[in-house]
UniProtKB/TrEMBL annotation:
PANTHER family: PHOSPHORIBOSYLAMINOIMIDAZOLE CARBOXYLASE (PTHR23046:SF2), PHOSPHORIBOSYLAMINOIMIDAZOLE CARBOXYLASE CATALYTIC SUBUNIT (PTHR23046)
SMART domains xrefs: AIRC
Any one Gene Ontology molecular-function term assigned to this protein's record: 5-(carboxyamino)imidazole ribonucleotide mutase activity
Pathway field: Purine metabolism; IMP biosynthesis via de novo pathway; 5-amino-1-(5-phospho-D-ribosyl)imidazole-4-carboxylate from 5-amino-1-(5-phospho-D-ribosyl)imidazole (N5-CAIR route): step 2/2
Family: Belongs to the AIR carboxylase family. Class I subfamily.
Name the UniProt record assigns to this protein: N5-carboxyaminoimidazole ribonucleotide mutase
Keywords: Isomerase, Purine biosynthesis
BP GO terms, sorted: 'de novo' IMP biosynthetic process
Annotated binding of substrate, by residue: S9, D12, R39
Top-rank EC class of the record's enzyme: isomerase
Amino acid sequence: MKVGIIMGSKSDWPTMQHAAEMLDLFNVPYETKVVSAHRTPHLLAEYAESARDRGITVIIGGAGGAAHLPGMTAAYTSLPVLGVPVQSKALNGQDSLLSIVQMPKGIAVGTLAIGTAGAANAGLLAAQIIGTFDPTVQAAVEKFRTEQTQTILDNPNPAE
Ligand code: RP5
């Protein structure tokens, strides 16, 4: 049972590594791969169509600019696909966000925020999805949330 983290380019890794780091926190296994909707379209089809049989349960797709990777992945598999809009240089990721979020009815992509917060939350959401059938992962997510809350409660003074 693995998460597949794919991205349109190696240049997306500084963003997408935040998804991987979140999954590390919960001991959720994952694989990472560069798969481009435009530059390697046949690889994208092959990756998405074989994902379930290879033990993938959730796919996280990150891309920037004309970010068709998550939507095309969702077109090829009924596994849940989470889309991360990578912050592009030209348009600050607004282009990536709109490319990913505006899916036509009938093919779903769960779109996260632009950039590193979106990538981290994609990892978190993937763990939450897996937690619905894996009590160990669910317990790890609950622990993370409890500790996060407690850290804030223990540090109320912003100037300290
Ligand atoms: C997209 O184009 C990638 O997801 C990346 O965010 C963007 C730029 O790619 P590179 O030119 O850096 O390879 O396909």
